[in-house]
Specification:
The protein is mostly beta strands and about 70 residues long. The chain is about 0% helix and about 70% strand. The radius of gyration is 15 Å and the shape is elongated. The chain binds zinc ion (ZN).
């Protein structure tokens, strides 16, 4: 039987940001980009945190969080 394992990047929304977008005054959300261990191309659990950022879906403004 062939078992396909690997890693897959996934971006998940983790919450709302308390400030609004500096460009369009829209709502900002906090996202985290993580590397997941995957089995048969299905991400199972996170193995590495890549970055956190805030993102405005209205104007695509993105800013890295420290
Ligand atoms: Zn915006």
């Amino acid at each position: 039987m062939l078992i396909i394992i690997g890693t897959k990047e996934k971006t998940v929304k983790t919450g709302d940001f308390e400030e609004s977008c500096p460009f369009c005054s829209g709502k900002l959300y906090i996202y985290e980009r993580k590397l997941f261990f995957s089995l048969f191309f299905i991400p199972l659990f996170p193995v590495k945190h890549i970055e956190s950022f805030i993102f405005c879906p209205d104007c695509n403004y993105k800013k890295q969080l420290k």
